[in-house]
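Cross-check.
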Amino acid sequence: MKIKSGSSTKVQTILDSFKLFFTDDLLDDIVFHTNRYAEQYFDQIQRSREEFNTTKLKSRRWIPMDRVELESFIG
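Predicted model, tokenized:
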């Protein structure tokens, strides 16, 4: 049995279309891995500063992001 293609009634806004491809689970995964990578990156910088005795420079710290912030960045 063939299903005819046509317009979908579930998609009424651009956000609905976006949510078809970027589910909450996917966005949560992106947030998790972004935070993990950033923590590793900033830890590595801090270790190299300590190793080369350049701790006088202003140290930066990663502030973890959340899904709302990611959605704001994308949208």
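The radius of gyration is 21 Å. The mean pLDDT is 86. Passed to J.P. for a second look.
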